[in-house]
Amino acid sequence: MKLLTKMFEMTVLAVFSVLFAGYALFVYPFEKLTEMMSTEVKEKKLKYTPITTKTAA
Question: pTM score, two decimals?
Answer without folding.
Answer: 0.58
